[in-house]
Structures are given as structure tokens and as C-alpha cells.
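Explain this fold:

***
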Amino acid sequence: MIGEVETMDKIKMTTPLVEMDGDEMTRVLWAWIKEKLILPFVDLKTEYYDLGLLHRNETRDQVTIDAANATKRLGVAVKCATITPNRQRMEEYPQLTEMWKSPNGTIRAILDGTAFRAPIVLPMIHPVVKNWEAPITIARHAYGDMYKAVDMVTEEPGTATLTFKGESGAEKTLTVQTVSGPAVWQGQHNTEKSIRAFARSCFQYAINQRQDLWFSTKDTISKVYDGEFKRIFEEEYETTYKVEFERLGLTYFYTLIDDAVARVIRSRGGFIWALKNYDGDVMSDMVATAFGSLAMMTSVLVSPDGTMEFEASHGTVTRHYYKYLKGEKTSTNPIATIFAWSGALRKRGELDGNQELAAFADKLEKATIDTIEGGKMTKDLALMTTLPNPTVLNSRDFILAIREKLEAML
């Protein structure tokens, strides 16, 4: 029975992991997951950072930088979903002093990692794309492009130029455009170092997973910018990874992103699809939804030095949060957030040689899946499952149902 487990010896941790709290409904789920699924069984050690929007505002976003640097130091982090404010959010939160940038973008820039996103596949939930048989992992470049861009609005006719001033004193200037009236502008960048780290992470991950690697951009239009991505990937493959790919019977190929989308839809799945930052942002949501639910998409940010940050791919579930504030019970799916915690605990256990902690992470995931296979699930899954007469639970009761399965295993 729930409660008896309190008398058990908890699993010890020798090294803390970084815990980044978040916003809205996912913050509520975060607390419930810790309370019911982790703290009763694990003597949890974390360095806690509150990345909730108001605390980021209070610290002028220094807390996000501190959390990212702590992740570099400790090697493992788990992150709750957070708000990236837009104009609507600025009205909703009038105490905000600035439209703060995406905390994920800040963290990715500091860690210079690649985000690997993969759906959690269940046998009783069939993908919308009928021929998909195996998960498709999205490898998203986690630095630069529009996420580190500068932009502005102008109101009069004029000309915009792009100028680079080298340390040597040399300058290069391009005319962006001459306009006859109001216009909007954006300047974005990437670095050769980050693109090369992205390529290496993708090739190494493909080798580790024994999966083919696809890469796509739009270099026919963005001949220089996207062309550099294509060139670096080809160079890394030919000079470093080709022999190992061929030995393992793996394939690497490049194609334009529009062709890649068509190929993905026709495919059976079971490969890694590498994409630039924005493309990966969009396509990971498409893949997650087509496999079942955005709440069933895991994400792990992997740095070149092996540092990992685990999180759910979805947002803060604002609509459910406002229902929760009214005292209403919601059937918000917590699975991706649970798997973020299990992924971080497993990695911490592996790094510390703590087999008991790693085994607990495996059992937490199995308890979650077994609960669903037993017919108990949140509303989003009940609408898609092939199981007859599923029991629809609210978020807290679903977590408690997982707790019962987990107790039985332990």
C-alpha cells in the first residue's frame, strides 16, 4: 500500500544532479512526480534552480546561466518546461521587465550540445502515419540561427547592410535590402565550431544507437549559410566516420529538407533525422504528434564532452494550468516529464557507478508503461489507444497508479 514504502531504505546518491524547475502546469506535475515517484524511494540530491518566469525576471535571467554552468560542472541535469515570453505573456505578466530569451536557447548555447528527441512508442497506440513502425529520433542543432538572432523594425525607406569587422581590421559588407517603407529585419549566425560539434554528436549518436543518419537543410536557397552545414557534415563523415558506418552497415545521406519530409512520411522509421535549430524545433513536434502525443516525446541535450540535460519536449500546458488554478482536475499527461527524471537519474547512476539508482530509473519507466498497458491512462492517450474501455484518470491519480506499480516492483 502507498505509505508503507516510507519505511524502506532509500537509494543513496553520491553526486547531485542539476534540477531546473519551470512554469505553469508542468511545474505542478514536477512537484507531484517528485513527491510520489522519486522522494519515497531515492535519497535525492540536487542543486536546485528555479527557472520559473518570475524568478528569471527577478534575477535578470542570471539563474538560467547559473543552472547551465552547474550542469557543465555536474554533468547531468533535468529540466521542467518553461515559458519563453512573447507580447501576450508580457501583458499576462505585467511585472516582467524584459521579454526574456528562451531559457532553452541560453542553456543550449552554453552547453553547445545537440538535442536528441525521440517518441515514447506504445504498442496500443498506433502512429497516425500508418507505415511508421519504429521511432524517428530528431537530432536538433541546439545553437544559433534565429534563437540567437537580433531583429528590429524600421518605419522609413532605407537600406540595411550586413558588416563583419575582423580582428585584423578587414571588413566585409553586404547589402541586405533597400526598402521603400516600413520593414522588419533579422540577423542570425552560427559558428563553424558549433556546426562541427553538432555533426560529430549526430554521427557518434548514430553509431551508438546503430541507426542510419539523415541530414537535411535548404542549401539550394541558402547557398552559403546552409551550404556550410552540408559541407561540414560531409567532411566529418568522409574523414572520421565513414569507415565505422560502413563496418556497421549504417547509411548517412544528405537531402533537401522538402525531399526529406516526403521520405520521412513514406519511411518505416527507425532512423535519426538531423536538422538545424528551427527545423528541428518544428519537425520534432510533427513527429511527436504523429506518433501519438507531444506529451510522449523525450529530449536529451548532449554536449561534446558528454554532459546531458534531460527534459520533456512539450511546453508548460497553459490551458490546463488555468483550469487547475480554478480548482478543476485536469488529465495532463506527465509521461515525458517522468522520463526526463528517469533519464537523468539513470545517467547519474551510470556516471557514479550506482547500479541501484540506474535500475530504479528503469523500473520507473516500466511502471509507467505497465500502468498504461493495464488500461489506466490520461485522456489524450485514451482517445488514441486500441485498448477497449480504458480508464481515464486525472494527472494526480495517474501518477498514483504508477506509484502502485512501482511499489510492487520494489
Remarks:
- Confidence is low (pLDDT under 50) at residues 1-5.
- The longest strand covers residues 145-154.
- The first helix runs from residue 24 to 38.
